[in-house]
Amino acid sequence: MLKPDWLRVKAPQQERIGEVATLLQNLKLNTVCQEASCPNIGECFAGGTATFLIMGPGCTRACPYCDIDFDKSVRALDSTEPERLGQAVFKMGLKHVVITSVNRDDLPDGGASQFVKCIQEVKKCSPKTSVEILVPDFCGCWEALETVLSASPDVLNHNIETVPRLYKKARPQGIYERSLELLMRVRDNWPKVYTKSGLMVGLGETDEEVLEVLVDLKRNQVDIVTIGQYLSPGPKHLPVDRFVLPEQFEEYRKKGEIDLGFLQVISSPLTRSSYHAGQIQKLMDEHPR
After folding, report:
1. What is the pLDDT of residues 78-126, one digit of tens each?
2. Helix (H, G, I), strand (E, B) or coil at 255
3. In the chain, what are the domain boundaries?
4. DSSP code of 3?
5. Which of 2, 106, 104, 1 has the alpha carbon at shortest distance from 55?
6. What is the pLDDT of residues 183-200, one digit of tens each?
7. Is 36:237 a contact under the CB 8 Å cutoff?
8. By the 8 A CB rule, do 106 and 73 touch?
9. Which runs of consecutive H residues, i.e. helices, occur in the chain?
């Protein structure tokens, strides 16, 4: 299926991309931008931003939409990773940083302790930098969630990914209701933390199902939602079922922000869960907690 014109990406600024890529390579850090073949890598690297991928690059789950490598082996955590991450955030001069991880179902706490150390190092190296974490579902281990939140991130993001009907197809090891519960638990127990979630379209869902997911997210008191077009990484991954028109993305945004009252809905073909994440600082200023 040929990509439509609205999915064309502007040529990136190679010089700035090279600077960021070199820094990440020297500090031996992974990013989702690179590992997941994000279409916005040019824009984000050119702007000096990145979403850091910790405990990777191998993931213990093999979701058929994702381009991150599958690795179910038991691997020790790198004790130097948090310090290197803190150094990168400082050297890049980031005002807002996103830290995410692969699924580490091989670890008793799903990697929660590593999230904590990374958050602490960022706050030590860059005290004014706001911290957003994009976490897995921790297999429903809420003690792990509590551990992560004990480090006081500013934003907790957990992606719902797709509509419930497509979970067995796209996210076989995930549970839709469990993801909603995770988001609600954050709101119930850590009311100062902003919650965020995202989903892909183009996997076979209907527009009505997308709107039903938005209702579910609002019912579970999520603050921010991202909606973007699914792009298949390759022939071994799920194919694109449809390319959603830009006008429909705008309808999703209006439904979410105007009708349902989310603080923010970022909805466009090239939107990804961390796209324009830096806007969260303005949002927090406008809606303090």
Report:
1. 999 999 999 999 988 888 889 999 999 999 999 999 999 999 999 999 9
2. helix
3. 5-286
4. P
5. 104
6. 999 999 999 999 999 999
7. no
8. yes
9. 14-26, 32-35, 41-46, 81-92, 112-125, 142-149, 167-170, 176-189, 207-219, 246-254, 280-286
CA–CA gap between residue 233 and residue 38 (Å, rounded): 10
Q: Residue 224, SS3?
A: strand
When computed from its CA atoms, the radius of gyration of the chain, rounded to whole angstroms, is: 18
Structural tokens at position 265: 């809905």
Residue 230 region, left (φ>0) first, then alpha (ψ -120 to 50), else beta?
beta
Q: Which amino acid is at 230?
A: Y
* Cβ atoms 134, 148 nearer than 8 A: no
Place of tokens 């945004």: 253
Closest alpha carbon to 217 in 193, 203, 244, 198: 198
SS3 of residue 53 by DSSP: strand
Rounded CA-CA distance 284/289 in Å is 8
The hierarchical CATH code for the domain 5-286 is 3.20.20.70
Please tell me whether the overall predicted TM-score, pTM, comes out greater than 0.85 for this model.
yes
